[in-house]
């Protein structure tokens, strides 16, 4: 009898997780973006992004740029381009990063906690954020002040 | 977030791709629909039955531990401080402190376990690497496996073919070594 090992499942309840934003498949968003509440990415998202909530990158979804997530990150899709260097995409997560078996990350990840499932493809630096760390760590581009 | 949405299920699930099932609660306690998504294989518990003991004869061999089942497990006990490089031809467990490199002998495929009390300052090269303690250096499993448990603290570089991380304190660069056949 061929028994597959038990696998964890993630229950996504958009109400409980306050996922009120969605970038649908086929949609591309680029620029300085600020999301109030959780975000589900099924398309492509790039730029300087702040998410005041959790971020779910769905299978087929891609996120690039400098990202700050105040909640948890669930990565089923891709963070960063396929052969991009680690500094082109960096993500700071104040919660837990969960990279599923289909998730791929080529960017720089900083998070309080990392849950990486077997088969996940994580390349590049990862840093565990400590409670005492000064925040933020991201080198946000600041326009020249007058 | 107070409640962790990730749950371990006992029944087997389809491996990939993440299946989306729209569930509605039939009991009426939760009116909103939600999705159940498979995230992958759960991390084995920290205290596995294969943890090294000082009586190797009563412990079944771990698959992949040795090339031909010959060498017994090498154990560096807690409280022992070892300085130097070691070449391994069999499985090895580190419960003490190592300053130096641990590498597998040419042609050998070994597993290295750093227990919760173990501390390695140096590089570890082995087919299977399991960390529950502290390491500072390169963890190189080639196309093998690396497991970082929740008590682990890892700094440096991690080269892996397959990896599992369960909340380890990680300050490292990860590098996946793809198998030659995969065009990833």
Can you tell me about this structure?
The complex is a heterodimer of chains A (146) and B (184). Chain A is mostly beta strands and 146 residues long. Chain A has one domain (19-127). In chain A, 0% of the residues lie in helices and 53% in strands. Chain A contains no helices and 14 strands. In chain A, strands 2, 3, 4, 5, 6, 7, 8, 9, 10, 11, 12, 13 and 14 form a 13-stranded parallel sheet that branches. Chain A is globular. The model of chain A has no long low-confidence stretch (mean pLDDT 86). Chain B is an all-beta fold and 184 residues long. Chain B has a domain at 56-176. Chain B contains no helices and 18 strands. Chain B has strands at residues 6-12, 21-23, 34-41, 74-76, 81-83, 86-88, 92-94, 97-99, 102-104, 111-114, 119-121, 124-125, 128-131, 134-140, 145-148, 153-160, 162-166, 169-176. In chain B, the strands form three sheets. In chain B, strands 5, 6, 8, 9, 11, 12, 14, 16 and 18 form a nine-stranded parallel sheet that branches. Chain B has a six-stranded parallel sheet with strand order 4-7-10-13-15-17, with no helix packed on it. Chains A and B meet through strand 1, strand 10, strand 12, strand 13 and strand 14 of A and strand 1, strand 3, strand 17 and strand 18 of B. Strand 1 of chain A pairs antiparallel with strand 3 of chain B.
Task: Supply database-style keywords.
heterodimer, A: 146 residues, mainly beta, 13-stranded parallel sheet, globular, B: 184 residues, six-stranded parallel sheet
Quick recap:
Chain A has 146 residues and is an all-beta fold. Chain A has strands at residues 6-12, 19-23, 28-36, 38-41, 44-52, 55-57, 62-69, 73-75, 78-79, 90-99, 104-105, 108-116, 121-122, 124-128.
Mean pLDDT of chain A comes to 86
**Binned strand content of chain B:** 35-45%
SSE order of chain B in H/E notation?
EEEEEEEEEEEEEEEEEE
Helical element count of chain A?
0
What pair of chains forms the biggest interface? A-B, 44 and 44 residues
How many strands, what sense, and barrel or not for the largest sheet of chain B? 9 strands, parallel
Could you tell me how far the N terminus lies from the C terminus of chain A, measured between alpha carbons in angstroms? 71 Å
Portion in helices of chain B: under 10%
Overall mean pLDDT of chain B stands at 75
The main sheet of chain A comes to: 13 strands, parallel
Q: Give the overall silhouette of chain A.
A: globular
Q: State the separation between the terminal residues of chain B, measured CA to CA.
A: 35 Å
